[in-house]
Amino acid sequence: MRDPYTFGHQHRVALLAVAIGKELSMSQEEIDIIEVAGLLHDIGKAAVHAELLVKPSQLTVLEFELIKCHPQAGYDVLKDIPFMESLGKDVAIIVLQHHERIDGTGYPQGLKGDAIEYESKILSVADIFEAMSSHRPYRPAFDIESAKKELLNKRGKYYAPECIDACMRVIEQNHNDVSCLFKPDT
Asked: Is residue 101, in this structure, part of any structural domain at all?
C-alpha cells in the first residue's frame, strides 16, 4: 500500500527463496519457514517514511541509514507473535538477518559467515535477485544476464556460494524467464 513500485516484492522473494530451498534439497518444514520469512522479510519497512520508499533518485547516506533500520523494525514486530514459535525456527531472526553479508559488511548487526542463519542467506540471495530484476523508482530493472552476473561477482563475498549456485540453477531451469519463477505454480 505504501510502495507501489515494489508491490508484490515480498511474494516474489518468497517464491524464489522456496525454489532455492527446494534446489538445496531442504525439508518441507525448512521450506515452509523460508516461505513465511520471505513473505514477511520487509514488514519493517512500515516503520520507514513512505517518501523514502518511492524516492525517484538515489538515496542520500542519511536516507539509506534510515532504510537500514527496517530489518530491526521487522524483527521487533515479529519477535513476540506466538504462532511464529510453532514453525520450529525463529522467523524474526531470519528477517532480522536478511541484509547480513557473509563477509560482515551487511546490516544491521554486521554478522559474518556461520553467525548468519542459513535461511537468511537464502533469503538475501532471493531478495537481491528479485530487487535487481524489477523496476525501481530510481532505476530500470536489470536484464537477467546482468542480474546473474552481479550475483556471481558477489558469490563467496556477500552471498553463500551454495545459495548463489542454487539460484543460478533455478534461473537456468526456467530458461531465464523470471516471470515464470514468480508464478506460484512453479
From this structure: yes
pTM (predicted TM-score):
0.92
Q: What is the pLDDT of residues 73-89, one digit of tens each?
A: 999 999 988 877 667 77
The whole-angstrom separation of Cα 170 and Cα 133 is 15
Task: Determine, yes or no, domain membership for 148.
Answer: yes
- With a cut of 90, say whether residue 179 has pLDDT above it: no
Structural domains of the chain, count = 1
pLDDT at 185: 47
| CA-wise closest residue to 177 among 7, 19, 71 | 19
- d(Cα 173, Cα 186) in Å, to the nearest integer? 11
Nearest CA-CA partner of 64 in 118, 21, 6, 107: 107
Asked if residue 72 is part of any domain, the answer here is: yes
Helix (H, G, I), strand (E, B) or coil at 117: coil
pLDDT digits (tens, 9 = 90+) for 78-125: 998 887 766 777 899 999 999 999 999 999 999 999 999 999 999 999
CATH at 127: 1.10.3210.10
Query: Which residues share a beta bridge with 182?
Result: none
Position 134 pLDDT exceeds 70: yes
DSSP code of 102?
A: T
Is the residue at 183 inside a domain? Answer: no
Identify the domain containing residue 171 by its residue range: 4-175
